[in-house]
Amino acid sequence: MSENKNNGGMSRRDILKGLATVPAVGGLFYGAYVSGKKYDATREARQSILKEFNIDAGVSTPRMTYTPGAKSTGQKIRLGVIGFGIRGPQLVQASGFATRRWLENMEKMGPDNDRLKAFYEQEDLNIEYTAVCDIFTVKAEEAKDTVDNGSAHGKKGNAKVYKNWEDLVNAPDVDAVIIATPDHWHAPMSIVAAKAGKHVFVEKPMTHKIQETHELFRVIQETGVVFQVGHQHRQTDSYFKAKEIIDKGVLGPISMVLTHTNRNSPNGAWVYPIHEQASPETIDWDMFLGNAPKVPFNKDHFFRWRKYWAYGTGLNGDLMTHEFDAFNQILGMGIPKSAVCSGGVYFFKDGREVPDVMNVALEYPDKNYTFIYSATQANEYSRTNLILGHDASMEITRELIVKPDRRSTRFAEKFEKGIIKPDEPLFSYVPGSTNLDAVTTATERYFAAKGLLYTYRDGVRVDSGHLHIKEWLEAIRGNGKTSCDIVAGYEEAIAAHMATVAHKMGIKAFWNDETKEIHDQNGNVIHEIPTDSPADVGVIA
């Protein structure tokens, strides 16, 4: 099929390709271009709207800069990593050290692999891994090999392998720790590390239980260590632009936020592979259990721990927290006044305790909106995250589109004059380019669409996790603050715990901001998340 060429010799494909690389109002420019004589009038109308709201149509303004290949200045920071299962290798890679397996897989995809290129070109964060710890000996050895030999910048190391995480935390040659363990270890390890004076980067959710949330909050404030929760959404380019647009009041009064998770694969439902070398001889089972109920050695529990309440936090803690934190940074939502939650194990009948379908509503009556999260692990239909305002709606992932509402009060006159149309976007912000992504699995595609794998700085693709870790390290050096600090982590954890309490107890859970307590509709305080089903539990005194 031949291309339709315009008088200038450019094809429709050429135009689209060019516009996709412009982090601005690309969709509007293309629509105007193909309209011929309407271009100038349309552009003038759009520019008048941008001017009216004082919005920069160009790139967003991130909290920190990024220069490919640059090296961080200041003190070298000595790191220890605890946990090297799934998220641990990803965080270590984001800091500049990749596993042999990942490097080999990326190299097989050829020279046009953006992810491999971005890894080698990322900034040198000026760090050294001096310690690693994993209770599965195979993973502990892989962690050491990675931090000793997998540097993007050709560095060689000699990290010590620790069998006990407390010994790592107290090691004199460790300045800060990255904690990437099952959820039930997040708070206990963070608390001990902070008390030992070590800076903490901990994966989400921040905590597994209600009371440890309060305790961790207190300890971080008292010790003053630099603390960061692993919500890399905080670095996503489109979210900075979204906040700018929201703050300028373009959407008008907001009434609803709609977010979601859609997956449809065993991996997306936490049915992770079981390693062939796993055994009681290679895994410290008692250390894995920690504060969880004592049960015999179980490979399914160890590798697929997210399916069980004793170790994980379910859809609310694992995936809703991503969306909550993303919109918390845009809207400043804070802790909801109340939460309701429904769902169940409807598809993966594999003995799991944690629902694979979930619906959550968090109420903010003081802000006049509701935050709604829905999830299924048995269908990957693509849905868009939405912020619904009286005058306009915002669709947001790693890109964003703002569309006027045909019943808008603010834009009514512009509709009548034909300056804008209710079926055309006001703005569309498309950072980055259309180059082929080396995204191979359904789960990776999910995270890529959410902006959780990578983002852009000045048109350059960069791992969002890299930026998030860099922000933490620079804060340790005294350059700025962390964006997902203990306050943001506290809000995320309490919101998730409220939803889980509501689900497990079959109630509407409320938050008392004065007493910092979760309670039921009768005012009874709920000190901890029940471990039984709704039919078997009552309010905990």
Can you tell me about this structure?
By secondary structure, the protein is α/β, with parallel strands linked by helices. It has a domain at 77-234 and 461-484: 3-Layer(aba) Sandwich (Rossmann fold), CATH 3.40.50.720. The protein has helices at 12-20, 26-33, 38-53, 87-94, 100-108, 114-121, 137-149, 165-169, 186-195, 210-223, 237-247, 285-289, 299-303, 314-331, 412-417, 442-449, 464-476, 486-505; strands at residues 77-82, 127-133, 160-162, 176-179, 199-202, 227-229, 254-262, 338-344, 357-364, 369-376, 385-389, 392-396, 400-404, 427-429, 454-457, 460-463, 509-512, 517-519. The strands form three sheets. The protein has a ten-stranded mixed sheet with strand order 14-13-12-11-7-10-9-8-17-18. Strands 3-2-1-4-5-6 form a six-stranded parallel sheet, sandwiched between helices. Helix 14 crosses helix 18. Residues 1-39, 433-448 and 533-541 have low confidence and may be disordered.
Structural class: alpha/beta
Biggest sheet record: 10 strands, mixed
Percentage of residues in strands = 15-25%
Helix content: 25-40%
CATH-defined superfamily of one domain: NAD(P)-binding Rossmann-like Domain
User: How many beta-strand segments?
Assistant: 18
* Basic shape: globular
- CATH fold-type name of one domain: Rossmann fold
Strand order of the main beta sheet, please? 14-13-12-11-7-10-9-8-17-18
CATH architecture of one domain: 3-Layer(aba) Sandwich
* The top level CATH class name of one domain: Alpha Beta
Oligomeric description of these chains: single chain
* Low-confidence runs: 1-39, 433-448, 533-541
- H/I helix tally: 18
Note the gap between the termini.
Answer: 72 Å
Instruction: Give the radius of gyration.
Output: 24 Å
Average pLDDT works out at 86
